[in-house]
Amino acid sequence: MPRGDDFEVSWRNADGEHRCPLTEADTVEFEAGLPVRGFPSYRGQRHFPGLYWSATTGGHVGFESWLERDHAMLLDFTPQVTGLLSQPLWLFWEDDQGKRVSHAPDYFARFEDGRGLVVDCRPLDRIDARSAAKFAAAQAACEAVGWGYRVVGEVDPVRMVNVRWLAGYRHPRHGADDGLAARLLALFSVPSPLVARAALLGDPIAVLPTVFHLLWLGQLTADLSHPLSDATLVSRTEAR
């Protein structure tokens, strides 16, 4: 297994392409760079590439499959994440046979406390020996520079359906009425049924988008392991 000083890293930003030993790149803002490779689209391909608009960055994050899109959405849904980039860097190293190996992880996320997180997305039952070796090396590289590393597969379907619903209200326009948001936070100071409580402030059709936006931001909270419904208990996050 390669060690930290055996890795090189390359990345792109507005100034061009850069490359250096990984151990010298701990201060690089990878989340503010550009993807190191594109997202090809062609007839007959089995994956579904596209762009996801991130509320965290205010820009688009690329994905090459719906699984990657879901995990981009989950990172965007994490309040502590302040930066996110897809295909953020190339890692280079030599394997045990001296063969040059490269790997571009799927995502780099930055947290508000400065921590970095590298994410690879792959259904766990589709990780072959070659991929497993690359993921193990990527984990060793991340540990060497103090980043977290995850290989993530399918998400609990109920939780994912709920997050996709809330993502429909992630844009700041749904929280533009600061007065309504403040009243909702006060109203949900104790766990209360979603629709009945929101209806106290007006027509639910007008009020619920702001409730969902506050749930997206993490200022309100609910149990997303069960389908969201009229009776879902919602509360201000500090109340739990």
TrEMBL record:
Question: Which InterPro entries would you find in this protein's record?
Answer: TnsA-like
MF terms (GO), sorted A to Z: endonuclease activity
Listed A to Z, the keywords are: Endonuclease, Hydrolase, Nuclease
Q: What is this protein called?
A: TnsA endonuclease
Source species of the chain = Streptomyces variegatus
